[in-house]
Amino acid sequence: MNNLKLYSELSSKLELESKEEDESVLFSAFDIERSRLFFASSANRIYTTHLSSFHNERTWSLSADVDSIDLEPNDYITALEYLMEKEALVIGTFDGLLLLHGVDGNETTMVGRVEGGVRCISPSPDGDVLAVLSRLGQILVMTHDWDLLYETALEIVPEGVDVREPTSSRYESPISWRGDGKYFVTLSEVCDSITLLKRIKVWERDSGALHATSESKAFMGSVIEWMPSGAKIAAVCDRKTDSECPSIVFFERNGLERSSFRINEQMDSTIDILRWNCTSDLLAAIVKCEKHDAVKIWLFSNNHWYLKHEIRYSKKDGVKFMWDPTKPMQLICWTLGGHITLYNFIWNTAVTENSISLVVDDSKIFVTPLALSLTPPPMYLFNLKFPSAVREISLYSKNTKNCLAAFLSDGCLCVIELPTVDTWDELEGKQFIVEASISESVFGSVVHLIWLDSHILLAVSRYGFDHYLSRISSNEDGILGFYLQEIELSCSEDHVPGLLTCSGWHAKISHQNSLEGQVIGIAPNPTRRCSAYIQFDGGKIFEYTSRIGALKHNDLSFSSSCPWMSVVSVADGGSLKPLLFGLNDIGRLNVGGRILCSNCSSFSLYSNLADQVITHLILATKQDLLYIVGINDILNGTLEMYEDFIHTGNRRREEIKTFIKIWERSAKIVGVLHGDEAAVILQTTRGNMECIYPRKLVMASIINALVQERFRDALLMVRRHRIDFSVMVDHCGWQAFLQSAAEFVRQVNNLSHITEFVCAIKNENVTEGLYGDIISLPRSKDIKDLKARDPKGLDVNNKVSSVLLAIRKALEEQLPESPARELCILTTLARSDPPLLEEALVRIKVTREMELSSSNDPKRRSYPSAEEALKHLLWLSDSEAVFEAALGLYDLNLAAIVALNSQRDPKEFLPFLQELERMPDLLMRYNIDLRLCSLEKALKSYRACGNWSGVLTVAGLLEMGKDEVMKLAHELSEELQALGKPGEAAKIALEYCGDVNEGINLLISARDWEEALRVAFLHGREDLILEVKNASLECASMLIGEYEESLEKVGKYLARYLAVRQRRLLLAAKLQAEERSMSDLDDDTASEASSNFSGMSAYTTRTRKTTSSSIISSAASKARDMRQQRKRGKIRPGSPGEEMALVEHLKGMSLTAGAKRELKSLLGSLVMTSEEATARKLQHTAENFQISQMAAVQLAEDAMPSDSINEQAHTLELYIQRVKSEAQNSEAFFWRSKIFLYP
Fold this sequence. Notes:
Helices cover 32% and strands 28% of the residues. By secondary structure, the chain is an alpha+beta fold.
């Protein structure tokens, strides 16, 4: 995803000693230690120059030292190499001389002679050995001390062939070493081949043995080059027999062919020289075409060979080149006439500022908008086809206008107007032919090209010598060097929306300035129209303004030349200003006139704003660390947290997460996706692209969207990047979000997304905790003011509950009713803090009631089924909590449904629910509240049940205050009095209210005499003692009267019972006698008639209605029974039930257990107050009554089964004596005081 940019082009003329035109430069060598260049000419002269001597002054001459090599008249130089160990040149001649030439002392020594002449000399990479190929086809390998190690023949010569006959032309050099020096390769003709086929041979250095041989092929010339890394051997194959252009073929060390690619030239073109750069990533060749020669440079990436650059020369120049042995991006070219040019390249990202990929490959540009599709080259969306190879490109993109300018290797300028990016989907897979612009101007060799405006280009061009692109006419002899040119563009064709405008463009140079220095880079000024910054050699920055043409020096210059230069607009104090970024070749990143990072390998700039104001710097270091730096940190100088962008293994720093570890070594940043995409695009050394989303950029884009109230976009980013949803609430305070909840729901309008958001909200402020180190909050409002405005009805101290309540209200207001909305509302209830499960269950209960009603209400369609809603609630909440919430509603059926849907064992909950169902309602509520530890509810249930002790116990558990307990006790005391429970009210008054007077009065009302007297004595209150005494005397007098009256009633009721019983027996005997006289009746009929008649008797316990009970409904029977029970207490003389009513009434007159306890307490109180006489009388009266009542009941029960009344045996006096004898040890008389018992 990179393009090879030529950023520096330095040319000089080597002044040859001979004025004759036939002297030409043939060979070159390089001194790595002292950066010297050596050239050997056809006149046997050695020219020595330093790289530092190259300049761009108008003299254009190159100072050089000249040494002449004395040779025989017909002898000449055929090979030249520099030996670092000898610090001298080794020269081979046509006659076979091996000469060692000391450049510094101009001394030449013959060190050997090779039979047949020297064809080429090739030292090993480590300098230990030297390989010499003779013109007779012999390979000689010797040490740097000229000791011959071995000699071998390049090819086995057939019999009859003269080995002394030279085999090749004088300028070819077919030996190449592998990078480690263990092997070398040669290319030689097959001796027995009629078709002049050749083959590659790989030789072992140490032994000279032949290691491998390739198949015989039609290799072109003697061009062969072993990649320094040792992976491939490059050669050229002639494809004329296949009517194709030549192809470059790659072989492995074992001689097998690996791959190849065509050079895309004419069929008759040839390749003379093939060279790898020192890092083995670029392959350059000289391609000789019909009208020109070209230096072509290829790159291999993603299994594709890209032609990244082409430099054209005229054929008469006879151009040759070499790569700088230490600088992989520096190419040195020279011509036969001595014109030497240094080309300095850099890898420039093919991704533009608006994330459009423009990858150059020969005469094509592959166009891909990465924001639409992250497609790695050689794939693309569409491509542009130009007349010749592309050398320099520039893209203009502003608003909806997109224009592309391309400078070609043939000197033409092409312009294309592109449609808006959102219509590019229609261009997929298409190729567009671009025509060159019409121009009468000669643009020279364009090194830099940018847009100043939509119709103005600014270019830096070089003119000079006989350069192919500098066609200088006779009246332009003075135009030499570098020029700054404004190029005006116009188009004769109307732009059609959605289509490309590839033709009809006119270009002319409107303004031209001569430049005194070398330009390293230019960049447009984004804050000022038609303005640009120009960087000269050394890092000096000047500002250029269109049409004025003046260069104004800028104070923010770089400390050194920075080939990678970018100018962006940043916000500083509310205004926009330009900020300059520059990266030099040693990794120093200059920003705003100072060095920001010293080990930067690549950088890019990111903007999350629509106006492309840069907000973040993204840089990668040589340690393969990726940093995201805020522009505000750079402007404010707050960069301490980055620790000079060097990883020191600081644990605290790793916790802060200031960097991202790049997973693949030497990966480079090629671009970013701006705005909401928030992505960084990396390209590995293998060529593949990777897209990462740094948390800091993602958070910046999310916060930016939230500030702009683009809630839907923010939510989508949060979901896509798995960010905590709470950031949407916390970015400017959750109180502010409450006011935007309705807008949030309206924009999102996706219930599943809202549900996901609701489930993730937490009380923690993630902008201060989880994302505190990577987030920067643009607070447009004061948070304190927001918090001061408490929204009505919301809990300002509970973030989760308040936010979910606001969402719930917004859902009900903004979205129509639907099952999904109801489920979302249930989610807000379940996720509240604490969960509002009871409210959720109430909503589910309403749905279930609608289902059970079997109504056709259309509203039912707007709700999910009760089962679905309940399962949704159980999925969101703890099943036990939902079960308890159902119990808290006191709905046992709902609780059972919850338990069943939560997969609980019925044995666990059914017995408990059944037990609750059998309880009275209030007691059930109390037990449920107690289980749920709902003490306040239990308090209410206790009060409703009348269990005052439980109420006060719960009050203690609730830790109620003293005043609250006192108030509660008074209320309970009054309630108990109203309920007729004065004894319990007295206990509360005494124990909780401390009111002795009221307590005594209540005990008297409860007739708890002994307790009343005890309390009175406890408090030493004589007045209360007297009050208790008087009340007990009054009560004793009243009871004596009641017992005497009841004693009389017992006698009356018993006598009536005996009389009724006697009369019934007589009547029954009479009826039986009459029945026996009716002998003529059938037995069955008589039986039925007798039964019916007797049933109608006034003294029978059955009626006619009861005999036909089988045909009477159960409901009617129950109603009749209820009426009979209400009438049972009444005695109606002559009624059928009179006899039983009398017996029941006698039984009902017995002393109850409460009456006995009251009587016992009253007797004790009278005795303790010295009222023995009254006590004795009371006990005697009560005892007589109880004995008489018991005796009467026994007599009645004994007389009931008898058919006759024995007047002697069935007497009350007799039974009274019997009861008296039994009463001595009977528990029924426990109330009696023993001191009053008669002997």
